[in-house]
Amino acid sequence: MHLYPEGVEELDGAFAVYAEEPPLGFDAVSVEDVDADWPDRWRDFHHGVRVGQFWVGPPWEAIVIDPGRAFGTGAHPTTRLTLELLQTLQPGSLLDVGCGSGVLSIAAAKLGFAPVVGVDLDDAAVEATLANAAVNGVTVDARRADALVDELPATDVVLANVQLELVERLLPRLAAPLAVASGYLDRDRPAVDGWEPVDRREADGWAADLLRLSRR
Predict the structure, then answer these.
(1) CB of 107 within 8 A of CB of 80?
(2) pLDDT in tens, the chain (216 residues)
(3) Domain boundaries defined on the chain
(4) Entry pTM
(5) 165 within 8 A of 98, measured Cβ to Cβ
(6) Considering all CA atoms of the chain, what is the largest pairwise distance in Å, rounded to the nearest integer?
(7) Backbone dihedral region of 64: left (phi > 0), alpha (psi from -120 to 50 degrees) or beta?
(8) Which of 33, 66, 109, 127 has the fewest CB neighbours in a 10 Å radius?
(9) For the purposes of burial, counting CB atoms within 10 Å of the CB of 25, is it exposed (0-12), middle (13-18) or buried (19 or more)?
């Protein structure tokens, strides 16, 4: 039995989960076989999006991001909202937690943030981030790490486009004065002692927040 699916796709308000066996935590409504090329079929419908001064998309459209088999194409509202807030900040050192395919790390580097460190639990995400950074001519130090357990570098800004629960567990561990958090619905807001909201963006039912460390 697989603990984690090999892929998840949102379809008409539900989720298609790709795995050899139904993964734990999912209630299967129906089960059917799929073609072996399912991990690559998304290329047929994935296109780029514009966010502020960035155009984010796949290399077959002669633009910047190839997700490979890591999460993060730049098209999801939480990615766009995080990019919007990122462009309001002065460049400095930056940590991207859950870097995925490297969209946010690369955007930060292009905005002048340095050094940029990306961490992710998925080896495929680290590989995709390093490859995409090279294609885009920027430097990103991507590494495999558990942000809730491993030591994190002190930076000026932290990006965390992850679930709300993870955001709230992560914030107390950060050695940074500013954090951009997303990955949750617009009805939700991070609530962590010592962090105060500064700015908020919402789109399509999702939200992103700029948070400032107020005290320890």
Answers:
(1) no
(2) 334 455 555 555 566 665 666 655 555 566 666 666 555 554 555 555 555 555 555 543 333 555 444 444 556 899 989 999 999 999 999 999 999 989 899 989 988 999 999 999 999 999 999 999 998 889 999 999 999 999 999 999 999 999 999 999 999 999 999 999 999 999 999 999 999 999 999 999 999 999 999 965
(3) 67-213
(4) 0.70
(5) no
(6) 53
(7) alpha
(8) 33
(9) exposed
Quote the tokens at residue 1: 């039995």
> Which residue's entry shows tokens 């995409």?
132
